[in-house]
Specification:
Blueprint lengths: L1 H7 L7 E18 L9 E24 L4 E7 L4 E18 L5 E19 L12 E6 L3 E11 L2 E24 L2 E3 L6 E3 L6 E28 L3 E7 L2 E13 L3 E6 L3 E3 L4 E6 L5 E9 L5 E8 L4 E4 L2 E4 L4 E8 L5 E11 L6 E10 L37 H16 L1
Parallel strand pairs: 16-23
Antiparallel strand pairs: 1-2, 2-3, 2-4, 3-10, 4-5, 6-8, 7-8, 8-9, 8-11, 11-12, 11-13, 11-14, 15-17, 17-21, 18-20, 18-22, 19-21, 22-23
């Protein structure tokens, strides 16, 4: 069961929760004047605007780290967890100029008011390139407000009537630009960053999310001139829309930096090289290799022997929870005289050392005058001193040699049957 659990976590760290929050000032005491528009019209208007606006964003998601090719990091938003809040105010003063073909000209202030714009929208984080929705937008449009209703008699019983409506619209937008993560960068949805692994029980990610904020204040001014006469009543002779883009702003801003911790497996072998000594041909020497997990995620892997030497390893798989030790037994069973070498290869889910090699050496030597008790080929097994480690998965247990004894007994049985 332990191996199955470790296999499930083999090449992926535990995900971390991500919460991003930031606020931005879109406009701060920004003043603008349109001048009198439209030029040459008998009815013109000037808007003087002072705007203050802000917005806030909150997003939730999780970060994932996986390997073995390289440490790969990506962030996935929690659907519907993003919220964009708009809070803005506009102080507007409208002045009208009436110019009736030189017969009547006057400027007068017709409106002074504060307009409050707000709104909210929910979205799927993190609105970057490649996402289904790569931009969030909040639009607040006030209903058309009558600024002016003015009548002027030009002939006996005939008059001109002037009206003007104003429709303000505030648009605020937000979109993700990038994640800066250690030495890597994430520029789009589904385009993770790759980073070099470190020899550590945890991988620390320093992250900064950058977003593009923008805002625009538009105004549609709609003047209407009507003629009123007895019997005929009033009818419009001139009406048109004057769209005005009064304010706009766009800038990039970093969210507050965040630090994320991803646990990793970290394999620590009990030796860097193994010497199984000098023994008689036909005997065996065992060496225990403790494998300790000093990381914070289960470690597991395979053990193999490479080379022409007469070495074997048991078992061929290992597994250790954080803070525990598993073990292997290397057996040297020479059949001929002479030195031999091989390599113990440990392939594991440790991203810092996915393949670890340990050189092995051993020597077989037949004495010049063998005694009765050390004649090669007899049914005997010589077990050399075992070095360190244990064959268990418990933290801090002493070396017992149990795996070595089992291996020796198995080899003895094989020899007697032969």
């Amino acid at each position: 069961m332990l191996i199955l659990v470790s296999s499930a976590l083999a090449f992926e760290s535990e995900p971390v929760d991500v919460l991003l929050q930031d606020q931005s000032e879109l406009f701060t005491n920004v003043e603008v004047s349109t001048g009198f528009v439209p030029s040459g019209s008998p009815l013109q208007v000037e808007f003087r605007i002072e705007a203050n606006g802000g917005a806030g964003v909150e997003m939730e998601g999780e970060g994932s780290l996986w390997w073995p090719e390289a440490l790969t990091l990506d962030f996935t938003g929690k659907p519907g967890s993003g919220i964009y809040l708009l809070d803005a105010s506009i102080d507007a003063v409208a002045t009208v100029r009436v110019d009736l073909w030189g017969t009547y000209t006057d400027d007068f202030e017709v409106d002074r008011r504060s307009i409050y714009m707000d709104g909210a929208t929910f979205f799927d984080p993190f609105v970057m390139d490649g996402a289904v929705d790569d931009r969030v937008e909040v639009i607040d449009s006030a209903a058309g407000t009558e600024l002016l209703n003015y009548a002027f008699d030009i002939f006996l019983g005939v008059s001109l009537q002037f009206t003007a409506d104003m429709t303000p619209t505030f648009t605020a937008g937000f979109e993700g630009v990038q994640w800066a993560v250690n030495e890597g960068t994430i520029l789009a949805e589904g385009a993770p960053a790759t980073m070099a692994p470190e020899r550590a029980p945890d991988y620390l990610v320093e992250s900064v999310f950058t977003a593009l904020w923008d805002a625009r204040f538009d105004l549609i001014f709609t003047p209407t001139i009507s003629v009123c006469a007895p019997v005929y009543g009033c009818f419009d002779v001139l009406t048109f829309d004057i769209p005005l883009e009064l304010l706009s702003d766009s800038f990039e801003q970093d969210f507050p930096p965040a630090l994320y911790t991803f646990p990793l497996p970290l394999l620590e072998p009990g030796l860097s090289a193994g010497d199984l000594g000098t023994i008689l041909p036909g005997t065996i020497s065992n060496l225990e290799v403790p494998l300790t997990n000093v990381g914070n995620l289960p470690v597991f892997g395979d053990a193999t022997i490479e080379g022409d030497g007469e070495f074997s390893v048991y078992p061929t798989q290992f597994n250790a929870n954080p803070g525990t030790t598993d073990g292997l037994v290397i057996t040297f069973a020479p059949t001929v005289d002479g030195p031999q070498t091989a390599t113990l290869v440990l392939t594991s889910n440790d991203p810092s050392i996915p393949m670890l090699t340990i050189p092995l050496t051993g020597n077989a030597e037949t004495p010049a005058n063998p005694g009765e008790d050390d004649v090669p080929g007899e049914e005997q097994v010589v077990v050399t001193e075992e070095i360190g480690g244990c064959g268990c998965d418990t933290p801090g247990s002493p070396a017992t040699g149990a795996l070595g004894a089992l291996a020796a007994a198995a080899l003895l049985v094989r020899r007697r049957r032969a």
